[in-house]
Design brief:
The structure holds 3 protein chains of 3 kinds. By secondary structure, chain A is of the alpha/beta class. Chain A folds into 2 domains: about 60 residues, no CATH class; about 120 residues, Rossmann fold (3-Layer(aba) Sandwich). In chain A, the strands form 2 sheets. Chain A has a 4-stranded parallel beta sheet with strand order 4-3-5-6. In chain A, strand 5, helix 10 and strand 6 form a beta-alpha-beta unit. Chain A is globular and about 50 Å long. In chain B, the strands form 3 sheets. A 5-stranded parallel beta sheet of chain B has the order 1-11-6-3-2. In chain B, strands 7-4-5-8 form a 4-stranded mixed beta sheet, with helices on both faces. In chain B, strands 9-10 form a two-stranded antiparallel ribbon. By secondary structure, chain B is an alpha/beta fold. Chain B has one domain: 3-Layer(aba) Sandwich (Rossmann fold). In chain B, strand 4 and strand 5 form a beta hairpin. Chain B is about 30% helix and about 20% strand. By secondary structure, chain C is of the alpha/beta class. Among the domains of chain C are: about 250 residues, Rossmann fold (3-Layer(aba) Sandwich); about 70 residues, no CATH class. Chain C is about 50% helix and about 10% strand. The longest helix of chain C has 22 residues. The radius of gyration of chain C is 26 Å and the shape is elongated. Chains B and C meet through helix 1, helix 5, helix 6, strand 8 and strand 9 of B and helix 2, helix 3, helix 4, strand 1 and helix 8 of C. Strand 8 of chain B pairs antiparallel with strand 9 of chain C, so a sheet runs across the interface.
Amino acid sequence: MAAHTVSVLDATEGPIVVPSGSCAAMMIDHYADLLSDDDALAAAARRVAGRVREFTQFVVDDLGLDGLEADATGPITFHPSCHGLRHLGLRGYGERVLDHVGVERRPLEAAEECCGFGGLFAVEMPEISGALMETKIGHVEATGAETLVGYDMSCLMHLAGGMRRRGTDVEVRHIAEIIAGEDEA
Amino acid sequence: MERDAFLTRVRSGISGATLPPAPELDPGPLTPELADVDLVERFGTVLATLDGTLHTGDPRAAIEEIIAHHGPGPLLAWDDEHLPLPDAVHRFLQSGCARTDGVVPHSAEKRLTHQGGYFDVLYGLTGAEAGFAETGSIVVRSGPGRPRMASLVPLVHIALLPSDRIFRSPMHWLTEHGADVAAVANTVYITGPSRTADIEQRLELGVHGPREVHVVVIE
Amino acid sequence: MTTSTFSERGAAAVGSAAAAAVGDGARHLIEKRAAAVDAYPAMDAMRDRVREIRLHTLAHLDAYLADFADSVEAAGGHVFFAADADEANAYILGVAGEAGAELVVKSKSMVTEEIELNGALEAGGLTIVETDLGEFIVQLSGDRPSHIVAPVLHWTKEQVGHLFADQLGVPYADEPTELNQIARTHLRRIFLRADMGISGVNFAAASTGTIAIVTNEGNGRLTTTAPRVHVAVMGMERVVPTVEDLGVMLEVLGRSATGQSLTTYTNLITGPRRPDDDDGPDEFHVVIVDNGRTAVLGDEVSEVLACIRCGACLNICPVYRTVGGHAYGDVYPGPVGSVLSPILFGFEGREELPYACTLCGACLEVCPARIDLPSLLVNLRERVAQEGTAFSWLDRPLDAYEFAATHPTMWTASIDGASLAGRANRGGWFKRLPWRGKTWTSVRNLPAPAVTSFRRWWKKHHGA
């Protein structure tokens, strides 16, 4: 699968913007290793890795924050997902974007703690994953925010599913939806 | 296993290893970079946070005060020649404390009988080789006339520390005096009174060692 | 090792009082560590030095162990090299026999738990008493430790009170101050008449033969001072080149473990009591234990031997905090245990340990030796996956996903199919999925796919 993705992306140009830190980290740090058996593919993987940007990284480092506007009304809270935060070293990036566009951001307790998604962990060990998720949702509820914002699609899907199950009335949105506005289908 | 066979096996493990590159050791200084502070003041502040007490000023008055607070009781002390205050032991004896012999016999049976006398030692009086301002610790080294038990079995430990022996941090002392560590059988850094938080994370003092540590600075 | 799997034990532990207590305790330790690191600006530089010293030593371990043994002997001590647990235990029993020892006191040591020394000594007719307050409670109750630094995080003070009343014949008390007094009095009598003391070793300096044993309670000092024989048991990777290097380890150990700049007692021992000394043990033995460490050294995860056993990775690990220490099934729990145990003790029955992790990376961020635990766990996962011994029920769904994702026509068809399902569900939520999807919906819903896929939306708005 990595080989397919690398081949497709290597034929394109410009930054490759990825809306999930975990996917970006995979492409940046692991694709070349995964494809090390094939020199040409590994070289392509390294070229692709050099062009990959996580979404907030792209916004802050490549675009600059000027001219961005918010498309959210009520108070929000932000969950910095682990791969962006620690693996890609993007501590503070999401918060900078949100604070720049001027949404009311409420601090989330234990914000840097994992939400329990963890890729296949979510289906391999659902009870443990669910317990971590419940803790995170509890902290989100305690903020009183109307919207939970994040920058990793997979964690957000997991949390949104948990909130739905629990009856938590908090909207879940990717940070791109906050700053860009939503185009109805 | 024979030593040589054991080490040969270890060597074979290393040769198969995929350890991250093994660095040569940086010959640069091992002391941490820390802000300059007044050493005595910092020492006292840190020791207080650890529930220990630093006594500056007249050391004899400090000792009298400690004895007055707890009353007379059994004393285990270093010999006078190893204490920086010549009449310190005398002060305890004068106040009615009885001195317990600190020399433990070698024979198994006599040893147990002798150590039975350590059960309820109230005061321990020792010197201190050095103090660490950053951690509130003192360094106590064993030797003839300097029993280890004196800083360990009593409820109240009084350590006499010359004021010019306070160092910035453990590494500031160790990089100058590393050779002193192995020159004796036992060197101990004592950082406040004995403590535990094993039961429900609640801090308790004096679980096996002293409940009080008094560091008396000698000018 | 029991026959249950990690995920079974972990699932059972979720929400239990014991796991909750471990979680609370671990959180408390995280806060204390963070405060200590904030107050110590040199922490990052010292972590670099720690890593450098540990990796350097491991790469020359045979030479440093030889130096260490020579130095211990020069200081009047004895050294025994134990290939495995049996050799270590047999040697220690032999020392006890020659010394005519009957009563043995112990201070907390992971490696002696690893080699199951207590059982071996008891089988040899000795009485052995754990003296760390937490370990004493564990021993008295027949329980197991749940944390490598704080063994009874999972106990309440009332439980301890009942245990002491039942086992020590004292009146029931449940104030920690009183419980502490009871233990002090009980254990002090034992210390002063014990024949032999057994300790672990936090670090050992090759150039001088000095060993460091750190404790907060002072039981480590009593164990190594009161009895006439002291046996120190060390994992062979505990060695560093010099006393100064050992000092560097101490700069980070207490701060990482409990947020203390130094543990209360840092006990540095070089040989037995010297001829004119007033007290101390007449005999000093060091038992250097391999017990699988050579295999770790030769493994792709050998970096894990740089561990200094501070427990910071346990505390910070969200999985550990949720399931507690026992779910891991071995002496070493948490992220470091999940790497170490399968290599040290074998993969069988431990296949799931590398998966007991969300790869959140928090452990790497706090490790004082900067051990890349997430990468080491991924390495072990790849090896388990090749054997197909854990979670193989996921292989077929994942193969199907890969096939679709690498074949554009198939992908479009799959997404359109999913969109149909989404439309049927009115852009809502799946509460229960069949087949392999059920473990997802066991604890959370799944959003139904968008009615219009991004591909279709893009084509509509931007042309081809």
